[in-house]
Amino acid sequence: MSSGAEKVVIVGAGPAGIRAAEMLVSAGIKPVVIDEGMKAGGQIYRRPPDGFTRSPQQLYGTEADKAVALHGRFDQMVAKGQVDYHPQSSVLACANRSLHALTPSGRREFGYDRLILATGATDRLAPVPGWQSPGVYSLGATQIALKAQGVALGRKIVLAGSGPLLTLVATQLLKAGAEIEAILDTSSLRTQMTGLPGMLARPGLVLRGMMMRAKLGRLYHAGVKILGIDADECGPVSIRWQDARGTLRKSDCDMVGIGWHLRAETQLAGLAGCQFDYDTGWAQWLPRTDRMGRAAERLYLAGDGLRILGADGAEVAGRLAAHACLSDMGLAAPDSSADLRRLRRYERFARGMARAFPWPAEMVRRTPDETVVCRCEGITAGQLRESVDYGGAEANRVKSLARVGMGRCQGRYCQLAGAELIAAKAGISVCDAGRLREQAPVRPAPIGAWVRDA
Amino acid sequence: MKPHPRTGRIVRLSETARPRVHFHLDGSPCEALAGDTVLTAVLSSSHHLRQSEFGPEGRAGFCLMGACQDCWIWQADGGRLRACSTPVMEGMQLLTEAPAGWPS
Ligand SMILES: Cc1cc2nc3c(=O)[nH]c(=O)nc-3n(C[C@H](O)[C@H](O)[C@H](O)COP(=O)(O)OP(=O)(O)OC[C@H]3O[C@@H](n4cnc5c(N)ncnc54)[C@H](O)[C@@H]3O)c2cc1C
Ligand code: FES
């Protein structure tokens, strides 16, 4: 087969997927782009449905120009028939150089010669007593509600956790007129300072972050310990916490948004044959690739699903992955040395962020026995610890015995905490607790859709 | 479980000039706006989407991006929808509990 006839499929139409598509198109290739969203854009540049009227400035703030440029470029490629775009389509499985997807018109297979995965990230969650009650959402969800629907998920909001989204979502909510009761950061100011040298690789962003933080004023508390969310049947009524001086505090609320930075979405990468390494800085398992994003033969990764470098880093990574793909096909691609330099700078910044707003390992290790770890099926920390006693200290064993990681989120929101609890119980490192093996489908397939088209 | 409180958990902050859409929640008529997801529509008049199968609490979604599958809701015909990524449609019949005679 001549390289010109090779079929390239991209999963994900966020900044990484869009820039990858753009580079392939400019080399004369028409990639297939499969994306779950109703419109292309991904997470940060998510677009509201038709009929919404807020301006890009209102939706994306300082990033409005980048958002407009990306959306415009992608829409233009679709209009010109340069990409074969499948929106609202979820890739559920990957085997034998073929993707199984659920599209609006039913189940469909997409064969490929080369695959670029740009699947982004999800919030990284840690269990908090009471987080199973309705009205506790991820920080990302809190932002999506605002961005894509123009709504707040409660009347009196507490945001808790750590990471750049905490300050950002708080700022966006306040600007939109929502009522925030408290912003609780589990990272202390001292820990945040240790990340500063790395973060100064992008001084403009640091400055913007500090200005946002300053505007939050007395709502923002650093170095907080979160003790639990009290709820009635309608949802949260208050959150109990300890401030940096050790004083016990309680904030009334009817909605809590929680999250500790992001977790790379790597399920499809695992199914497609990628290897993983535990990264202590990011406190998660990340795909193993070369600098360009080559993960295995004919498999390339880009964006937050590979390294959590943010939106600008995702655009660069998308171009690099497409570059690798083109050169492996024997086709010419533009010089990528400037992008590789940018990538290094974004990485220094991102490592600084990871250090400044760390995964709350100690908090997770002390999770009370009765606290729910698996929100899907209500499995508690105590049940998980018990299964370590009789089943051994390995994530996949604990999954089969205690079902932590087996629920409908497929471990996305419990596996990092699960590994931390296993490690603490057995006195081993988190890395030695192992990594959950991916299982298809990566999204539960409605049975009807499979039967209808079988 | 208490009957639905008249107001839900959602607060509309902007984009309220969209056309109205009508649907039924547990048989009661409700109103939403065109472009709302089923999650936004239902939580505008309720505090949850359904009862949890595994615990005493209600469920109201969690990630809003299709990753947690916490947000599914019953339709009167026994089908289920992922509320955070399905647009609400005129005339939808939604239920917070399994339809009568349906094994939940
Ligand atoms: C909820 C959330 C909110 C965020 N908000 C901000 C912010 O305000 N500012 C900021 O700087 N950064 C934000 N981030 C980080 C930011 O999203 C990224 O840095 C950037 O969007 C990464 O780009 P990407 O192309 O790698 O992935 P994304 O933009 O996440 O795009 C990935 C795309 O892949 C699709 N996808 C994933 N799995 C599948 C599948 N199985 N089948 C089909 N399609 C699939 C998704 O639907 C999505 O459209 C946020 C992240 C999250 C998770
Ligand atoms: S709220 Fe997570 S999938 Fe809908």
TrEMBL record, chain A:
GO molecular function: oxidoreductase activity
Name of the featured protein: NADPH-dependent 2,4-dienoyl-CoA reductase/sulfur reductase-like enzyme
Domain BFD-like [2Fe-2S]-binding: 372-423
UniProt entry keywords in alphabetical sequence: Oxidoreductase
Pfam family, one: Pyr_redox_2
InterPro entries reported in the protein's UniProt record: BFD-like_2Fe2S-bd_dom, BFD-like_2Fe2S-bd_dom_sf, FAD/NAD-bd_sf, FAD/NAD-binding_dom, Metab_Enz_Cyan_OpOx_G3PDH, Opine_Oxase_asu/HCN_bsu
Glycoprotein in keyword set: no
Originating species: Rhizobium wenxiniae
Limits of the FAD/NAD(P)-binding domain: 7-190
From TrEMBL, chain B:
Gene3D superfamilies named among the record's database cross-references: 2Fe-2S iron-sulphur cluster binding domain, sarcosine oxidase, alpha subunit, N-terminal domain
A Gene Ontology molecular function term of the record: iron-sulfur cluster binding
Pfam assignment, any one: Fer2_4
Alphabetic keyword roster: Oxidoreductase
InterPro entries (UniProt xref): 2Fe-2S-bd_N, 2Fe-2S_ferredoxin-like_sf
Keyword Glycosyltransferase recorded: no
Protein name: Putative molibdopterin-dependent oxidoreductase YjgC
Organism of origin: Rhizobium wenxiniae
